[in-house]
What does this fold into?
Amino acid sequence: MVNIIRALSLWREKYENANREERVRLLAYLYLDAPYIWGAEAPGGTDCSGLLCGIFTFMGNPIRVTATDLMNKVFTKKSNATYDKKVTKAFFLVANNDYETPDGVRPAGTARHVGLLYGKGMLLHATYPKGTVVESIESVESSYSKSNVTMIFKELDWDALKKMKGEVYGMDTDLL
It folds into this structure.
């Protein structure tokens, strides 16, 4: 128990001294191995958009929006798949055809999935049934290749995120 308390204390100290980009990665790390739970955004269980929204909520900017809203309103700067620890980037799998979700049909051109660029050639994302995992870009592209989607990368626009503060379609109130 003492080791856990010490580890949490060290993590907290590292978090408090980190810049916002490093904070995103430190918080994302807490989500590793979380089970996939559609509509959730906590380290105890999350879906793909909930992973990012939960991180932003913990950072004091509560939002709960869809992957498409993240793609169009928060990650507004087009980018490439090159990792840069000074820049927060996300990947989006954009549907080329209409597709079904648990809450209805989404049209082509919407984001079907979202996750973070987490290292050189690596992505962190919450996916069913694996939960929150780190996988290579090639592995994710390969697993979705039959789904008729396009993978795009975008950079986080911190000013756009601030404008979204409080925008929700449903949020785990215990995170606030």
Notes: The beta strands are 41-42, 45-46, 77-78, 89-95, 99-101, 104-106, 111-119, 122-127, 131-136, 149-155. The first helix runs from residue 2 to 16. DSSP finds six helices and ten strands in the chain. The chain has a mean pLDDT of 90.
